[in-house]
């Protein structure tokens, strides 16, 4: 039975590359046409495969419906939360998760620092687009035309001397973020606060969320926070794999 399941599942990536004949399916599976036909008929009965009028087979509508439903019901916050807690326990610093919604980037989860000096932020609150590490990560993944249009229409408040001054500087910063795969806010929003972030990616490689570790300079200097980069990147990668369903089973 497991061999039949394995063979049936092998048909799906084959048909994802385009329609195939019965003979082509049989050749790829290394089985007789009668065996391939039995598997295709079973998949067809469940809507996962469709037989075209010309006799070739393609992926069925039910497969796309299941994929769309699964993606719609994926809750990146629920998946990410245990990892955020672990990162918080390991570092002691405030950990955030953020999503991009319209022209805003919003915190959707937070685990507070264990230190007395804490960061004031709350779930549901938009972050400053032009300086926040999580915002840079999410916006850097936008299509070029969409990103440039956004850069032209938003404002560039001078929160501190380190704030992003204009659209040109903003786009240069996002180019850097895209190239290196992580982002910082080193006193750009508040002089005394530093932040280090990494992207959470979906199955297609696009950024679906961003996580960050934040700490006041009196708790840890910027250099000390940057030393956590490997740990932050590993956490973001673990969340990405869990979200995408690519982690190996224990």
TrEMBL record:
Q: Does the keyword field hold GTP-binding?
A: no
Spell out the SMART domains in the cross-references.
HTH_ARSR, HTH_ICLR
**IclR-ED domain location:** 62-245
HTH iclR-type domain spans which residues?
2-61
Q: Which domain of life is it from?
A: Bacteria
UniProt keyword annotations, A-Z: Activator, DNA-binding, Glycerol metabolism, Transcription, Transcription regulation
One example of the protein's molecular function in GO is: DNA-binding transcription factor activity
GO process terms (BP): glycerol metabolic process; negative regulation of DNA-templated transcription
InterPro entries per the record?
ArsR-like_HTH, GAF-like_dom_sf, HTH_ArsR_DNA-bd_dom, HTH_MetabolicPath_Reg, Tscrpt_reg_IclR_C, Tscrpt_reg_IclR_N, WH-like_DNA-bd_sf, WH_DNA-bd_sf
Cross-referenced PROSITE patterns: HTH_ICLR, ICLR_ED
Q: Which CDD domains match?
A: HTH_ARSR
Q: Which PANTHER family match?
A: HELIX-TURN-HELIX TRANSCRIPTIONAL REGULATOR, ICLR FAMILY, HTH-TYPE TRANSCRIPTIONAL REPRESSOR ALLR
What this protein is reported to do is described as:
May be an activator protein for the gylABX operon.
What protein name is recorded for this chain?
Answer: Glycerol operon regulatory protein
